[in-house]
Design goal:
The protein is mainly α. Helices cover about 85% and strands about 0% of the residues. Helix 1 packs antiparallel against helix 2. The radius of gyration is 21 Å and the shape is rod-shaped. The relative contact order is 0.15. The model has no long low-confidence stretch (mean pLDDT about 85).
């Protein structure tokens, strides 16, 4: 007896890829905007002697960088999983 799952019964992989891609693009755009805002805030606060604000802006900049990196990895991971899922 040869039993194999019917993967053609599950549809919508293209829609899922489109939705995830749109959401990750939105997150990437927001992360880049936050990097710009935090970078400018860090520079202005450092120049004017507001060291606590500069420290918070620096942390925000690093968080935005990490978010942008994880978003890029997320796109590659979803594409990989959808490719592997279609070959099963």
């Amino acid at each position: 007896m040869d039993i194999f799952p019917d993967f053609s019964a599950v549809g919508g992989a293209e829609e899922l890829q489109r939705i995830v891609g749109a959401l990750l693009t939105l997150v990437l755009i927001i992360a880049v905007l936050m990097m710009i805002i935090n970078g400018v805030t860090w520079a202005l606060a450092s120049a004017n002697g507001h060291f606590q604000i500069a420290a918070r802006a620096r942390v925000g900049l690093w968080v935005a960088c990490g978010t942008a990196a994880l978003t890029g990895v997320g796109v590659a991971w979803v594409d990989f999983l959808l490719d592997v899922g279609s070959t099963l």
